[in-house]
Amino acid sequence: MPKALLTIESLVKNYGGGAVLNGIDLTVYEGEVLVILGPSGCGKSTLLRCINALEPIQAGTISLNGEPIRRDSKDLPRLRQKVGMVFQSYELFPHLSVLDNITLSPRKAQRRPRQEAEAEALALLDRVGLKDRAGDYPRQLSGGQKQRVAIVRALIMHPEVLLFDEVTAALDPEMVREVLDVILDLARQGRTMLIVTHEMQFARAVADRVVLLDEGRIVEEAPPEEFFDHPKTERAQRFLNTLTFETVKKKAKNQ
Amino acid sequence: MPDLGLEVLLKGKNMARLLGGLWVALRISLIAVAVSIPAGLLLGVVMTWKHPLIRALTRLYLEAIRILPQLVLLFLVFFGTTRVFGWDLSGELSSVIVFSLWGTAEMGDLVRGALESVPAHQYESAKALGLTERQTFLYVVIPQAARRLIPLSINLITRMIKTTSLVLMIGVVEMLKVAQQIIEANRMSSPNAAFGVYLTVFVLYFLACWPISLLAGHLEKKWG
What we know:
The complex is a heterodimer.
Chain A: E1 4-15, E2 18-29, E3 33-37, H1 44-51, E4 59-64, E5 67-68, H2 76-81, E6 83-86, H3 98-108, H4 114-127, H5 143-155, E7 161-165, H6 173-188, E8 193-196, H7 200-206, E9 209-214, E10 217-222, H8 224-229, H9 234-241, H10 248-254
Parallel strand pairs in A: 3-8, 3-9, 6-7, 7-8
Antiparallel strand pairs in A: 1-2, 1-4, 4-5, 9-10
Helix pairs in contact in A: 3-4, 3-5, 5-6
Chain B: H1 14-47, H2 52-67, H3 70-85, H4 91-116, H5 120-128, H6 133-163, H7 175-185, H8 193-223
Helix pairs in contact in B: 1-4, 1-6, 1-7, 2-4, 3-4, 4-6, 5-6, 6-8, 7-8
């Protein structure tokens, strides 16, 4: 039995009177890749933000290795170091070079020596094919490159779990691949990850388990093959149907 | 060649007196700047707080200072408060007070704007990396806000220097007042002195403010 790493119990998050997350129970095991799917506004990004305590929650608990993650905890910065997060809009620091973007948090939050942090940053940059861009500033990079730097910036903290919040949604189609390849590589290394994405083929390839979220609840939870090929719930079937298209022109010819 | 009235400046100590006047103007503005920058930094941080009472008070202060012409503020402090409260303020001290109040308000608003121009997402990504509030402020927010703030605050300094020409209205003998005195005293011997003397005043103000403007432009380009 794999070890439970992240445990979410009866999580409720209200926003402006309505419940965005309405009683979420979810356990993520060590080494597992969990993909969270759902229509826009279903609360998937909010769920990730709650895990990192970027959002206040109204009820329930979130714990990492048995340690509760709470916004009022004095220990929050230390806990957040164990939860890496990558945002849709990269959010690199514009005033710092690529190398300084990556080494800021290990040097300041973990008090690691600059030399060691820079050596690791360069090794990680090499891994995502950006070693030669270490001295550049974020504005000199393409979207895909920025996102790969953002992933390295999260990795250097040696997080126990990684959260990916629609990391390819802002990218041009030809740049999506380079970012997804990095994430696939991380999955191969056995990293624990929670991924919110709209890339269904990628979800299928990377996931150990797929969770479908709708109106703040988990409506289906299954291994990817089962979820995509034989969805059990009517809601999941409807969700998957919105993603397929009938070829209109062919149809017209056959008539 | 028409008589530009420049020879007046060579008479007696006229040029030295003008420079002395410039020094008075610069002294008032530089003391006010030295007060306004730290006070404005503090005020700007306070202005970003969400507390409604603090918001209302800082807003009131800023708007009041902005709506009143500086000259009215000068009269209010120099003629008004000295009479009502019975204290004895020199013209120069009144000027320093008014310019500090004005500079603090404007500087505070610039600081508030610069801090608020750093997107919420930057705070979030810093926190998500495990940085504390203090580290987030120190290494992520302040460097970005400062890049926006420095050129704007340098422009404020040049505005403060220029506006000191108003203090002659409360009897402070600064450069413009000295210029008027020189012209007045030489009305008979050099009737064209007004041109030469005011031209010199123009050049001196220009020389005082231009390098500062250049620096602002340079920093703006560098960090823009």
